[in-house]
Amino acid sequence: MARFIRQYGAMYAVALALIVVFVAVRYWDPPPVEVARLKSFDFYQQAHPLQLPGPIPVKIIDIDEESLAELGQWPWPRTILAKLVNRLTDAPVAAIGFDVVFAEPDRSSPDTFIEIVEGIDESTRELIAGLPKNDVVFAEAVKRSPTVLGQSTTTRESPIVRDTKAVKTAVAEIGGDPRPRLFDFLGITRNLPELEAVARGVGMFTLKPEIDGVVRRVPNFVRVENKLYPSLTLEMLRVATGKSAVAIKSNPAGIASVVAKPFAIPTDQNGRTWVHYAPHSRDRYISAKDIVDGSYDIAKLRGHFVLVGTSAVGLLDIKATPVDDAMPGVEVHAQLLETVFTQSHLDRPNIATEVEAALIIGMSLLLVILVPLVGAIWSLLVGCGVTVGLVGGSWYLYTEEKILLDAIYPAAAGFILYSVLTYMNYVREAAQRRQVRTAFAHYMSPALVEELARDPDRLTLGGEMRDMTLLFCDIRGFTAISELYKSDPQGLTTLINQFLTPMTDVILERHGTIDKYMGDCIMAFWNAPLEDNEHAKHACASALMMVTAVKELNDKREAEAKESGTEFLPINIGIGLNSGDCCVGNMGSAQRFDYSVLGDDVNLASRLEGQSKTYGVTIVVGENTHTRAPEFAALELDLIAVKGKQDAVRIFGLLGDEEYKASESFKTLEAKHNELLAAYRGQQWQHARELVAECRKLNDQLGVLYDLFDERITEHEANPPGADWDGVFRATTK
């Protein structure tokens, strides 16, 4: 026994200390632990989202881009909203919830109109003044409808304090005072008093994201000046059921549930409900314009819960959720209603932390026993089996019982403990052999030597052939920019660093390798040394992002130049991309070599960068690259034999990403541009000239390109190329 204690006493002492630390950290719950747990729950929802059993009576009246285009910019005149509410009331719907707040009078109202418009004669002024205010018209529509107005919390005291009688809901507090557990805010952004006075309900649409910015739980109540304010969805349930009160139930562990009969909604200890998300679907949405103009059959909305909100990006109501990084905030409320209707609430019991702490202790004790007795391999196998059981059990609880239990932290704690115990066991065994292996016990080779030891041929001269994508990027007009810094060479160095840093970040973030910097030029490649099966795609994406990064840099430099009163010259770049088989490896001399790339396709990429100025496009790509990344928006520019080459290559101008390629504007331009190329190569000069004019109208940013075609057409009209002309342009400059 004494020998056993001498051998394993230190190991057990360290293990016990680690178990105490693991449990303490779990109760402390620092941000990394919390985020890892929440991300695991997100994975569950992504892998197995809520499957709706059928049509759910929840719809979103969407203030979308189409509605803004047809009905005008937001905020709309309240008369339009009155018309929308009246049509929904005629359906009739069960409840209408506004995920917007009407805090200020309508600026388009007749009384406001006559105050801001000059030159109106008195009779017209009196006629307009006699018209009802838009807010009055809206209030009348709200009064006859089951409308719940939305309001929002603020993190500062409200400048306007209104009568608290505007709160429509009585709250029954069961089991104790819930206020200490609720999220507290300093103020409220309220609606106009005349609207609050006639609405059936007023609810908070506040969404409080988690620590990582993702909305997983929605507060059912918030506290402002020690008063309770219900959420928008809770108020909609109350209004739809005709009740005047809701209840909030507490227990010693915190808030347990809220009740809007007949619905009982479980909550966490802070009164928040986990949203069991279904996949995002546009089927939930109805364009607001279709309701207003009567093109939507409102009879389909009979008995529905209707939320009025926006998916328009410009109105800034976009939230990150477990199933969608950019979900309109109004859909979060809609999905919460779906969760309530389907009784699919997710639950994280108040004892979840204790259960997870018990799992940590149990798994740790198992490893403490196994590692000294059976060794690292068998302990690892058992630990992996237990980990699989933990994760499987957590998954089962989620899918079958809708319970959220964290398996990540207990498994991570077990892995750390296993690593420590295994290491200590290794150290102990190594110490026993130290007398006969003294030299090796103190030996540690540098990383480079370790690489050479495993594979000495890796760092010899030469290389291997790989299919790669090459990128060359150069600053246009750099001489003129350098002139500005002729008395400040240090400033020019700073500028180059400001340019190269974001360009490098863009390339590295998309799996590229920087080959070298050549003054103001960057050379990079993809698919070496690590394999990248989508190297052309990543290179094209990098090129587009580099253009965006340069624009951001120019905006910053221009602002600095205005502030300092100095001259500003923007940085303009040209980029060439080409793909093909290249030799990549360690190039140089026996004394010094670098990891680089050689080949004919490398030279072509460099030449294409130079042609970007000729064709007036920022990014020129070779046909090989375009073929490997067809999802990007690109126009064929020419058949060209670049300087130094006899064979012609087909080159393309990269104009945008996948979204732009799918746009109607690009499809129209592409079709017309291809028609132009066909006419040009068919020597139909007049028709080609007409098509040049049409293309120029479709995209005025390609003026240089179409000027070039105009010049060539004029030249060919004067000097016809002949019937055997192959359409190839032979470049005389790099």
Keywords:
disordered N terminus; 24 helices; alpha/beta
In short:
The protein is α/β, with parallel strands linked by helices and 734 residues long.
Report what the structure shows.
The relative contact order is 0.08. The chain has 24 helices and 27 strands. The strands form 6 sheets. Strands 19, 20, 21, 22, 23, 24, 25, 26 and 27 form a 9-stranded mixed β-sheet that branches. Strands 1, 2, 3, 6, 7, 15 and 16 form a 7-stranded mixed β-sheet that branches. The protein has a 4-stranded mixed β-sheet with strand order 4-11-12-13. The longest helix is centred in the middle third of the chain and has 50 residues, at 352-401. By secondary structure, it is an alpha/beta fold. The radius of gyration is 34 Å and the shape is globular. The termini are far apart.
Helices and strands, with pairings:
Elements: H1 2-28, H2 31-47, E1 58-62, H3 65-71, H4 78-90, E2 95-98, H5 110-116, H6 122-129, H7 134-143, E3 147-154, E4 170-174, E5 184-185, E6 187-189, H8 193-198, E7 201-204, E8 217-219, E9 221-224, E10 227-230, H9 232-241, E11 245-251, E12 254-260, E13 263-266, E14 272-274, E15 285-287, H10 288-292, E16 305-309, E17 318-321, E18 324-328, H11 329-341, H12 352-401, H13 408-432, H14 438-441, H15 447-454, E19 462-476, H16 478-484, H17 489-509, E20 513-518, E21 521-526, H18 535-564, E22 572-588, E23 593-598, H19 600-615, E24 619-622, H20 623-628, E25 633-641, E26 649-656, H21 658-662, H22 664-681, H23 685-698, H24 703-718, E27 728-730
Parallel strand pairs: 1-15, 1-16, 2-3, 2-16, 3-7, 4-11, 5-9, 22-24, 25-27
Antiparallel strand pairs: 3-6, 8-14, 9-10, 11-12, 12-13, 17-18, 19-21, 19-22, 20-21, 22-23, 24-26, 25-26
